[in-house]
Amino acid sequence: MAFLRRSSHDREIGRLAIPAFGALAAEPLYLLVDTAIVGHLGTRQLGGLAVAGIVLTAVFGLCNFLAYSTTGAVARRIGSGDVRRATAIGVDGMWLAGGLGLALALIGIVAAPAIVDVMGASNSVRPFALSYLRISLIGAPAVLLALAGAGYQRGRQDTKSTLLIALGANLANLGIELVAVYGLGLGIEGSAWSTVVAQYGAAAAYLALVLVSARRTRASLRPDAAGIRSTARIGSQVMVRTAALLIALLTTTALAARVSTNAVAAHQVAFQIWAFLALSLDAIAIAAQAMIGRFLGAEDAEEAHRSARRMIEWSVLVGVALGAALALSRTWLVPLFTDDPQVRELASQLLLIVAAMQPLNAVVFVLDGILLGAGDSAYLAVAMVAALGAFAIAAVVVVVLDGGLFAIWGALCVLMVARLIGMGARFLRGGWQVTGAVRASRARS
């Protein structure tokens, strides 16, 4: 079988994907640590964290375009041998991230009361949600700078630095938070401030890496309007793709909530496992972004296609392995999340669907990475909106027919199949294989 044969790309895929997985797995730890510590302060504090946390996750998730739009562009310049302009793209991304982060912090802090009210926080939970959200938004510039910095490092074919920074920031967060919450008695506010401090530490590390690169390559550190506009234009297309995906995922939870309490509880268990496995599979997609961009920048479309095919083969193999492991382990995995026998039974059945989806998800995620690395963000936005349309039709059918939890997950399968069709067609037709230092006709002078 083809995937059993060794490839010249295997070593590089592993070199990029393995540290990328570690960095991706570390990203949710900020909120998990906060949840574990705040959960011991009281139910109202934990409720406040839940309300603020979902808002922060959604907002910062939408801003991941700062990483994705930077990786492919930097990798193209690296492939073309223009290291100075690769660094200039990183500098532009950092300026854009800093500006957006500052605006997000100012607007968010002012709008925080309205946001908390829209989220339906009760009177007992509202003060804690408001406090945590406002303090956390002070860290918005740092979060966005870290996203842009991670994208730059990935474009430079360096995922080890992103792993080290993610681990360091999370260890710092844990240590500072234990002292602030339990030692100084600062409560949920101490938890939020600890995370903000750790986030600024990570941002400082990425800024230092960009500064070192700029010094070595003699790239300007001044903001370049044309470069920032270019990054923002690509980023807006990636944001459309991300927003459409988030809408679909949030809709599945909303539909599950209308079925029953047991159904939404089982859905939450299955969805969290689905999301964690997505992180595992996304590691290969990050390798794809870096490698595809570099090969296309070096005007080697054939090698880009070869490496892409190899990453698809690896993603299928990993997807099958993850699916099989989940199917076999679900009976002891589910009890870790709930003691309710009815929820356990539902969740265990749902995990069979999650397991069966893994090979499909694997190919979808790596195709997404390939097209992002190629800078094909405009097509990705259109394809994702079309997939959202297919999902919406399936979701309407579920509502009209009063379908249950399994029908809702069937609608999620429709979303993934639609994404596979849209991106698979693009990959097979080769429209993504545009070579050169930049994909668009306009380049930074």
How does this structure look, described?
With 445 residues, the protein is mostly helical. The protein folds into two domains: 8-223, no CATH class; 237-445, no CATH class. The chain has 15 helices and no strands. It has helices at residues 10-26, 29-38, 43-62, 65-80, 83-118, 126-138, 140-155, 160-183, 187-217, 225-257, 261-297, 301-333, 341-373, 377-400, 405-429. The protein is globular, with a radius of gyration of 22 Å.
- In total, the number of strands is 0
- One letter per element, helices H and strands E, the order comes to HHHHHHHHHHHHHHH
Spatial separation of the terminal alpha carbons: 47 Å
Q: Kindly provide the radius of gyration, computed on alpha-carbon positions and rounded to a whole number of angstroms.
A: 22 Å
Q: In percent terms, what proportion of residues is strand?
A: under 5%
**Total number of helical segments?**
15
Largest sheet, strands/sense/barrel: none
> Judging from the principal axes of the Cα atoms, what is the shape?
globular
Number of spatially distinct domains: 2
Secondary structural class: mainly alpha
Unreliable spans are: 441-445
What number is the mean pLDDT?
86
In helices, the fraction of residues equals over 70%
